[in-house]
Design goal:
Layout: H1 6-14, H2 17-40, H3 44-65
Length: 67
Amino acid sequence: MPTMNPYFERKILDSDPIDLVRLLYQRAIASIKDAREHVANRRIAERAEAIGRAYAAVTELNAAVKP
């Protein structure tokens, strides 16, 4: 399992719920942009990883809004 950037980990731990939602949206958007770039450059494995990251962020967002 990859280790998390200590700065980013601290940012997550110190964030309030609204900031966490914002971070998840930013992660999803950035991952989709990465996936599009990988498709354009025919890097299929990297594209799949980027889509997986976007999916994970959206799944977390969905869980956050469900009662």
